[in-house]
Amino acid sequence: TARTDREQSFEDSSDRPTLSAAPTSNRRLLAWVSDVARLTQPDQVVWCDGSQEEFDRLTAEMVAAGTLIPVPKRPGSFLARSSSSDVARVESRTFIAAATQEEAGPTNNWREPNALREELNGVFSGSMRGRTMYVVPFSMGPVGGPISQLGVQLTDSPYAVVSMRIMTRMGQAALDAITEDTAWVPALHSVGYPLVDTLGRSRPDMAWPCNEHKYIAHFPDTREIMSFGSGYGGNALLGKKCFALRIASVMARSEGWLAEHMLIIKVTSPEGRVHHLAAAFPSACGKTNLAMLQPTIPGWKVETIGDDIAWMRPGPDGTLRAINPEAGFFGVAPGTGWSTNPTAMQMIGENTIFTNVALTDDGDVWWEGMTDEVPEHLTDWRGNDWTPESGTTAAHPNGRFTVSAAQCPSIADDFDAPEGVVIDAVLFGGRRRSNVPLVLEARDWEHGVYLGATISSEQTAAAEGTVGELRHDPFAMLPFAGYNMADYFAHWLSVGSSLPDDKRPKVFGVNWFRRGDDGRFLWPGFGENSRVVEWICRRVEGSAGAEEIPLGLVPGVDALNLEGLDVPVGDLEELFSVDPTSWNAELDQLEQWFTTFGERLPAELPTQLQTLRDRLPRG
Ligand code: GTP
Ligand code: SPV
Ligand code: MN
């Protein structure tokens, strides 16, 4: 292929690019790119401008290489099949290299920064041989916005480049915003599969190159990211979990704001009143679905601002203002269908990159839950023939779609607002088959922080581990907090107390996943969740009633709008029932878990736990 002036070859100069053609004069950036190129030894360096032309060129190259397969039924769309060992985030290989283990805290894998840096220098040495290194400048949030942040990803994965173009504001505008004195996060990524070894022998590429030995490494003190060995989602699109949550949470703590694993929606009531809600649910527990909810109750409108990450900052007027730092959605495919999430189905009709889903014989994608009818023959996510008798799922349970927010039919007009939207309510939820009620309002901010800190959820396929196993996932941030979780709880308490009483968001807990003894979901979920959203908005307005139960405030019999809903009375009762025996057992377990945080745990949390214990009937 012809070389453009944005590409530099090493053959021209001695052992590294002159970088004379680089479209920036930023010295720190040029020095870093040059140092990384010397370490990783790519054939060439390409500076990405974020143009459609560049996207088309890269996708064409990936089609030729077998990395992408066109999806003819959806214009501009492609399927990627990852290596079967590279299908989700790898939490056991995710490291927080804080100065001390205590700073990383008991929920993170800590590594001593200098030792890890040394180890990674060895791992990255020559890791891009035979490949192109792309320089990917990006902004999280609108370029130049007061809440936005800049970063540059260096990667040898064209899949990461095209995904970053969808997921972030990527390209020349972001690069131009990086001046000598702006802060930006250096994010280095390699799939760890060089095509030429140290003796100069070459080997063929793979459709999805990766390395069995993975590192997702974060240096919070210097705000750097180094990711090696994986091409997948949160491991490889470094603006997302690595930057916008792990590094950003560290920035947020020192600057008095919040970086959260939250969706953001704009809700308009039948009277035209607008409320913004932010909600934290663990991975694959319903954020994308709630973000794109189509209300089943008349007169209500829900619009999308974000589906995965929220940056929330106390504004000059005392309100908590939030932006979605992303520009696209990397959503779970299985379970996404016309009956559950029609908005998403409309959104992914074109210009979408699918990963690890099945292909139909007539050139479309398919996954479990997309249609009621199951196709008789498919090519599964591994590329094998598949029929309903195969005994496996056709799509990987963590198969995903990557699509621009601009294509979302429910995107809100204030999606792009650089100053963010005012958050009126914060929701915490998990996947709980028992104990946790459909909806619960916290008595105050401290109680709300307790609700966030004590989220437990059945594990999903979004990370390696045993699916279905209940685990603590405080604030849905267990894999994403970049510092000590106990300090993170304290930070939440402190941000809340910095807000004036009348501006502080109300806090709620929700659970769409409670099941009956027979194992079926007690609540229909999806669009019907609008009924819960309605009660939350009415509570914010001060117009809906609530009843106090030991756990907090719940809608009384008449406060939840059940008009036209076909849920048996018995199920509704069960959705709010509190079993003292199992709650006391849950509190014993929580108390035990609290001890893992030692002295750093804010006293407010055990106090809240004791209050709850005192309120429970003796079991
Ligand atoms: P990440 O992108 O991993 O952070 O996940 P997410 O929280 O955005 O999860 P998502 O909305 O994609 O939901 C994941 C799974 O939960 C899908 O299979 C959905 O079909 C299912 N789900 C979402 N909302 C509901 C609901 O209200 N009820 C039930 N029963 N399932 C739901
Ligand atoms: C999650 O796992 O919470 C995701 C997908 O949103 S990933 O980008 O892989 O983290
Ligand atoms: Mn997520």
UniProtKB/TrEMBL annotation:
Keyword Cytoplasm: yes
Cofactor(s) of this protein: Mn(2+)
UniProt-annotated binding residues for Mn(2+): 241, 261, 308
Gene Ontology molecular function, alphabetical: phosphoenolpyruvate carboxykinase (GTP) activity
Keywords of this entry: Cytoplasm, Decarboxylase, Gluconeogenesis, GTP-binding, Lyase, Manganese, Metal-binding, Nucleotide-binding
A Pfam family this chain is assigned to: PEPCK_N
Binding residues for substrate: 89, 232-234, 283, 398-400
Catalysis: reaction(s): oxaloacetate + GTP = phosphoenolpyruvate + GDP + CO2
Region (Disordered) residue spans: 1-22
Keyword Manganese in record: yes
Recorded metabolic or biological pathway in which this protein acts: Carbohydrate biosynthesis; gluconeogenesis
Compartment(s): Cytoplasm
Main location group: cytoplasm
Active site residues per record: 285
Protein purpose: Catalyzes the conversion of oxaloacetate (OAA) to phosphoenolpyruvate (PEP), the rate-limiting step in the metabolic pathway that produces glucose from lactate and other precursors derived from the citric acid cycle.
NCBIfam families attached to this UniProt entry: PRK04210.1 (NF003253)
Quaternary structure and interacting proteins, as annotated: Monomer.
Protein's recorded name: Phosphoenolpyruvate carboxykinase [GTP]
Lineage of producing organism: Bacteria, Bacillati, Actinomycetota, Actinomycetes, Kineosporiales
